[in-house]
Amino acid sequence: MVSREYIQIQKQREKSVPIDVKIIRRGISQEAKFEKAFSKAEELFEYLVEELRRKESERIPYSDSDIDSFQHSIATLVRYAVTPQKSMDYGYYLLKECEHPLRTRSLHLMILTNMVFRFGENRRITKNMKVALELIKEAVRLRIFQDDPSKFMTMGRDNTIHVFETVSNKVLLHYGLKLSSDKASIVSI
Question: How are the residues of the chain apportioned to helix, strand and coil, as percentages rounded to the nearest 5?
Answer without folding.
Answer: 70, 5, 30
